[in-house]
Amino acid sequence: MKTFMYMLSITLLLVSCKSVNKMVEKGEYAKAFDYAISKLSGARNKKTEHVMGLEKAYSKLTSTSLKEINRLNGQSRPENWPKIHDLYKGLADRQDRLEPLLPLTSEDGYVASFDMKDYNKELEIAEENMCAYLYNHALNLMAKTERSGDKTHARNAYSDLMQILKYRSSYKDTDRQVEKALDLGTNFVEIRINNDLRDFMSRTIERNIADMSVSRLNSQWTEFRMARNADAGADYTVWVDLNNIGFSPERERQNNYTESKEVIVKTEKVKERRDSVDVWVEKQVYERVKADVSEVFREKQSELHGKVRVTDNRTREVIKSVPVNVFHDFKGYGCRYTGDERALTAESKKKLDSNLELFPSDGMMADDLSHAFKDVLMTELKNIRF
Predict the structure, then answer these.
(1) By C-alpha distance, which of 20, 35, 32, 108 is closest to 64?
(2) N or C end of the chain: smaller count of CB under 10 Å?
(3) Predicted confidence (pLDDT) per residue in 277-326, tens digit
(4) Hey, where are the domains in the chain?
(5) 14 pLDDT exceeds 70?
(6) How far apart are CA 309 and CA 236, in angstroms?
(7) Is pLDDT of 34 > 70?
(8) Is residue 224 within 8 Å of residue 284, measured between CB atoms?
């Protein structure tokens, strides 16, 4: 068993060592670098294969990055400065991870050699050029939005400016330009109510819908607001058409029925003669009892119909139109009895309800309809992609 475990350990060790070499041979230098670092960090006996693998992976990664930096040529092609900055950052970060292991000598006495360099100056130059490029690029993108109305450019400008702020918290007037990019890139959506209801409750319904908390719908690039006055700056208008409202008459019906039952009222002893002998026996006395049950059913319906239309104010096109229909049904119920409760069946006892609801007024039902309408409207607005 010990021999087996020893051989298993040797096998696993060989597999781990070979994996570093295979990664390097396959050109997976970043993967080999990470793996070798993890194996060597904190290891007392540093395997030569790991040390040599790390040495080769680092050398290849460094030379590849430097060649790519030269190829990108930031002076001639300033749009490449963000990539160049990332490459220098990668070079510096890689050295920071390697530094704690130096000097690095394997258990067999192999001393690794690493070409270490201070990239702070290159990083500083790359960062300055990167910020300058991103800033100017952002300004050009926002100018495109102002000319064409295409908000995608402003949103890309926002990304550029936010990238600057990752490295420079106060670069020129970047903060002010961020606000401008947000404003240019945001779709402003106004909500207007077109009330065509012919009912005395129409103003109440309109006021309830107008009080809708549309700010909950806001996202980074979309801002909703209820239009109180003419708003020429809105990109989209959501028209809430209120077309028809109706209330049914109050309807009430009754159902009356009687239940009866024989119940034991007392038990008494009586003398009976059995087989020429007088005996006393218990006898139950029954009485028929009854109860009159009265059920009351109340019903009233209401409904509100409308439509949601979304207009692109730049093209004057209706990009979405959805009907909105909401209903509210009132059902009231009461059940009472007169007479003897003992006559009631179990089913009738379950029905008993002395709290018979009053008919809601048209105003109360209109209030319920407007809240239901708002819920549907909010759901529809959430699903629109502006």
Answers:
(1) 32
(2) N
(3) 778 878 888 899 999 999 999 999 999 999 999 999 989 999 999 999 99
(4) 20-117, 138-185, 189-246
(5) no
(6) 10
(7) yes
(8) no
Q: Is the pLDDT of residue 212 over 80?
A: yes
Strand segments, DSSP code E, in the chain are 187-195, 222-226, 236-247, 251-274, 277-312, 317-339
- pLDDT value at 15 more than 90: no
What DSSP letter does each residue of 104-131 carry, written as one string? -B-TT-PBP-------HHHHHHHHHHHH
Sequence-separated (6 or more) residues with CB below 8 Å from residue 88:
69, 119, 122, 123, 126
Report whether 383 contacts 322 (CB < 8 A): no
Distances (CA, A) of 208 to 191, 294, 364, 372: 14, 39, 12, 11
Q: What are phi and psi of 216, to 5 degrees?
A: -65, -20
Angle between helices 48-72 and 81-98 (to 10 degrees): 160
How many angstroms separate the first and last alpha carbons of the chain? 69
3-state secondary structure 125-167: HHHHHHHHHHHHHHHHHHHHHHHHCCHHHHHHHHHHHHHHHHH
Backbone phi and psi for residue 259, each to the nearest 5 degrees, phi listed first: -120, 145
Name the average pLDDT for the chain: 91
Average pLDDT over residues 140-158: 96
Segment (H or E) for 51: helix 48-72
DSSP 3-state of 232: coil
